[in-house]
Amino acid sequence: xSPPVTVAAELNRxxxxxxxxxxxxxxxxEDICDPYGGAFKVTRGLSTRFGPGRVHGxxxxxxxxxxxxxxxxxxGLRPVVELMFGDFLTLAMDQLVNHIANWRYLACDxxxxxxxxxxxMGGGRGYGPTHSQSLExxxxxxxxxxxxxxxxxxxxxxxxxxxxxxxxxxxxxxxKREYPRRVVAEDTAEGGFAVRRGEGxxxxxxxxxxxxxxxVTVVCYGGMAEECLAAARVLLERHAVAAEVLVYARLHPxxxxxxxxxxxxHGRIVVAEEGIRPFGWGSEVAAxxxxxxxxxxxxxxxxxxxxxxxxxxxxxxxxGVLPAAxxxxxxxxxxxx
Amino acid sequence: MARxxxxxxxxxxxxxxxxxxxxxxxxxxLGSGPEPGVAAAVASPPxxxxxxxxxxxxxxxxxxxxxxxxxxxTTGTIHTCIGQEANAVGVTAALCPDDxxxxxxxxxxxxxxxxxxxxxxxxxxxxxxxxxxxGRAGSQHVCSVSGGFFANGVLGGTVPTAAGMALAxxxxxxxxxxxxxxxxxxxxxxxxxxxxxxxxLWGLPLLIVIEANGWAQSTPTRQxxxxxxxxxxxxxxxxxxxxxxxxxxxxxxxxxxxxxxxRSTLRPSCLVLHAYRLGPHSKGEPEQGEEELARHRAKxxxxxxxxxxxxxxxxxxxxxxxxxxxxxxxxAEQAGPA
Lengths: 337, 338
Prior knowledge:
Number of helices of chain B: 14
Oligomer: heterodimer
Strand content of chain A: 15-25%
Largest interface: A-B, 35 and 39 residues
Structural class of chain B: alpha/beta
Number of strands of chain B: 9
Helix content of chain B: 40-55%
Shape of chain A: globular
Number of helices of chain A: 10
Order of helices and strands of chain A: HEHEHEHEEHEEEEHEEHEHEHH
Structural class of chain A: alpha/beta
Distance between the termini of chain A: 45 Å
Helix content of chain A: 25-40%
Order of helices and strands of chain B: HHHHEHHEEHEHEEEHHEHEHHH
Number of strands of chain A: 13
């Protein structure tokens, strides 16, 4: 049996393949060069393989890094920027929101801005309030900026390749907790859940309970799929509730079709994300479902997310803020009251 | 070349602390003969008449904007470069057609100098479908791939974009130079210095033109800026020349040397151009006060250059530019709304 392939290794493979296939692909980031190979080792080996002409280790200058990438993209290259921590997006928010997201719109004669910003997000590692957040929802709803999220239940490598070959600017969300985890390549996930993949790497993935007959759908993305699957197993084993998990890869723009299809089946749905619950991705999903599926909803759309509080470093403090499987179980049961 | 150096020698600012000319670490090299590429660029520089005509065109264009704004015929805001036209015309005249310009909120002169597209810019600011960006950009976000021109109204944030373009051109070995225009007000933003560092570290073909116009909106430079301006570039190992703008030819000559040095060495360079902003930050009354304005009006580079041309020629240029701008306004008015 071949060794398990981790999410970090898959992302690394995607970068290698993209750089092999297209000389326009360049990497930028802090400490991405060998021997260090990036804070989470996703870029390991790349500077050795492709040299300093393609892999640009940068000083601690997030705003300049993203602006430089935009300029490169506007002149025919396809830069991929690694942020060491997704939290540092705030340092480059002007570049993303006021510059990068607008350039393509402003020029009427075919200006492309093909760039990817990779952002490791999420907690669970005790890094404290400034290195544990899931800030991606703050960058959704920005016209001109696409937000994608990798998940080990989807195709992280394929999704990254797709992002790199896109002609627009993409914020690519990665889960820090998922880097060392195994990518699910089989048709069955833990607990006997069937893996039903949508079209292409950007399609949704449905984790259906063994035996089928789902009574409720939990919609999520990225690393939260892990918690959702754990919750679905608990629901099945302890509460005799068949819950399925619908994992999105394209967060913004949001296409509710897959979620609408599921809610039409049984009328019960919960949205779970690691980011802050108020004004989150789930808020938009819930609003879309309320608008489009009000007649079939059997219960209000449940929402699970982080509490709107800083994420403390100690395990107990962190656990008190971040959502866990138990929160998802409770939200699912709430839809059945 | 020799004449340009003469002008430089007269106008390069002197360092108050050392008394030495602040021509930058490389200023001595300017006298050691043209570097590769320089000769070609200065072989047939545009005449004073040509440069003056471009400046007048920009002046009339922007004076018309104030009238159009008052008449409710422009959309959004405008920021004019009245008094600073020599910067825009002098620098863009030193560029090759394929070179790229990244501009800021005060960019009408930069755009007209780079592209000459009077109709496209007028229609853009008047919110017409025929505008260079079909009305998307207004005055301060004009972008055109074919024009090699990219502007954004958020100060300082354009500097890394320009550096990234310069990196791409270096990768492509295109020989293009990227010029980024910023004002002294943008020097308050940290991203400028992040980029100065990167541009020097990576050896990017980037010319940073800092237009020190005395005012950041309603704040005099002396209230918002500590220390010196060229020193900020030099701290990162970037050559910087500091010039009190006396007229358009001196700017063009200095820029030609800087541009060709950037092109041949693939190193960033910095020009600090002191030309005073004679208009308001945006619309309405100037913030500077009448006494200060009057003092600077006497040093208006446009007037200084005018004195070097015949009255008949000056009159003719003035009339032709007015007719051209009036035509652009008529064309914009005839076009459909964006």
